[in-house]
Specification:
Elements (H helix, E strand, L loop, with lengths): L16 H12 L3 E4 L8 E5 L2 E11 L2 E14 L8 E12 L6 E9 L23 E12 L2 E7 L2 E3 L2 H7 L1 E6 L2 E5 L3 E10 L4 E8 H11 L11 E7 L8 E2 L3 E3 L4 E10 L3 E10 L2
Parallel strand pairs: 1-9
Antiparallel strand pairs: 1-3, 2-3, 3-4, 5-6, 5-7, 7-8, 10-11, 11-12, 12-18, 13-17, 14-18, 15-17, 16-17
Length: 283
């Protein structure tokens, strides 16, 4: 088929569900997921030993939008458990397409697992919704773990897709001063800067105390309460070879001094400009 202008007037009905799904999947970056910002993000709650309630939100299956309207919910029945046994049930989205009319539809359904000494997920038949020949597909959505007669937990089997606003909020660039700036993500901080070290004639200088590093990290993420050297890597280079013609070695952490030291050759009493990059894991 030739290239077609989808977002444009053609004088006739011409936009297909496949085209819309392909665009959404390309923007979001996952085939199957829930848009976390919309409604209650299709959260699932066990309201009894035999019922899971799924609240409002938008899911994407193969890029196709599936919606539970705002301020509504859908209940999904779960069969009784077995005393003394474990079982995994899978709530899935059942997709069907009529081979003659092309009408597509979705509904929640449950695939019941086998009761036993441990919970095992039952098999689903999940087909590629991008294939023109796909008429049915079972897309896993929630895992319901039963322990005896009780529902022990309900787990997501889909990605939660953040909005662009959430992504921007979790990826923060900040400038601390004219000599330092950094990037903070939910799991990682990178700080780049420059400073001048002074000292006596020697082949090393104190680079950062742990308290210095903690102060830097807290500027980018105030929730950090202590510095852990095991989560930190620092790289450096001579920031002004004309002022101090020396060669840098890798900085080292000395726990007895609670500080990083910068080593170099040859020894010098001159001031040294150090360009640094601090990498810190928040895991």
């Amino acid at each position: 088929m030739a290239m077609e202008l989808v977002t444009g007037y053609a004088g006739k009905a011409h936009v297909t569900s496949y085209q819309d799904a392909a665009i959404q999947a390309g923007i979001v970056g996952v085939d199957n997921g829930v848009l976390s910002y919309v409604g209650q993000g299709m959260k699932a709650v066990a309201t009894s030993a035999n019922n899971i309630r799924i609240y409002d939100g938008v899911a994407l299956i193969g890029g196709k939008a599936v919606v539970i309207d705002r301020d509504t919910y859908q209940d999904v029945a779960i069969a009784n458990g077995t005393v003394g046994k474990y079982r995994n049930d899978i709530i899935y989205i059942k997709y069907t397409k009529d081979a003659f009319t092309g009408v597509e539809s979705v509904t929640f359904d449950v695939k019941q697992g086998a009761a036993g000494n441990s919970g095992i997920d039952p098999a689903l038949t999940t087909n590629n919704l991008y294939s023109t020949g796909t008429l049915t597909s079972e897309i896993p959505f929630k895992r319901v773990r039963l322990n005896g007669l009780a529902i022990e937990s309900v787990e997501n089997m889909h990605d939660n897709v953040p909005s662009l606003t959430e992504l921007n909020r979790n990826f923060v660039f900040k400038r601390r001063n004219s000599s330092e700036a950094g990037i903070c993500t939910p799991h990682y901080i990178m700080i780049m800067g420059t400073s001048v070290l002074q000292g006596a004639n020697a082949d090393y200088r104190q680079l950062f105390l742990a308290s210095d590093l903690l102060s830097k990290l807290k500027f980018y993420d105030p929730s950090i309460s202590n510095f852990e050297a095991a989560k930190c890597v620092i790289t450096t280079n001579n920031g002004d070879g004309n002022a101090a013609a020396i060669h840098f070695y890798a900085p080292e952490w000395w726990g007895s001094n609670n500080a990083y030291f910068q080593y170099f050759y040859p020894a010098t009493s001159s001031t040294i400009r150090v360009n640094y990059c601090i990498h810190y894991l928040k895991l």
